[in-house]
Amino acid sequence: MTETATIDTDEAGVPLAPGLTESFLGPRVRVLWNLLSARMMEALEPFGLKTGGFSTLALIAANPGCSQTALARALGMDKSAVVPIIDELEQRGLALRVRSSADRRRHALVITEAAQVLIDQMHEAVAAVGRPIRQALSPEEYRLLLSLLERSYRALAED
Fold this sequence. Notes:
Distance between the termini: 47 Å
């Protein structure tokens, strides 16, 4: 008779064995993303923005005049998924599409003064979401984590 594994549902907090996913990055990143995403949505709710909206505003603020294509690439999203986010930001008076002076066929993205005020207000709420990770790691480990995530992104984006 073969023995089957059972999960003891009476003990809270007992982690499940990862099984075949033990050496795969995707499932671990997905679990972390699920936790971060839920906390970001909660943190940004008072400001009326979704997580994509905050990231989009932050990237446009850091890269005024960027294109929608460059923004989509930086967000790791399809261009068609970025359009409704920018539409919403534009409707709220937080971002503007302006004709590029270098290429009149494309739009350059900029944030408004109202967006900068909102970003400044959201900063602490967003920082608080990642604080447990920062506290669990040394400053060097945290910088290494960010560096490894960036290298991982580039490896997939360039593939």
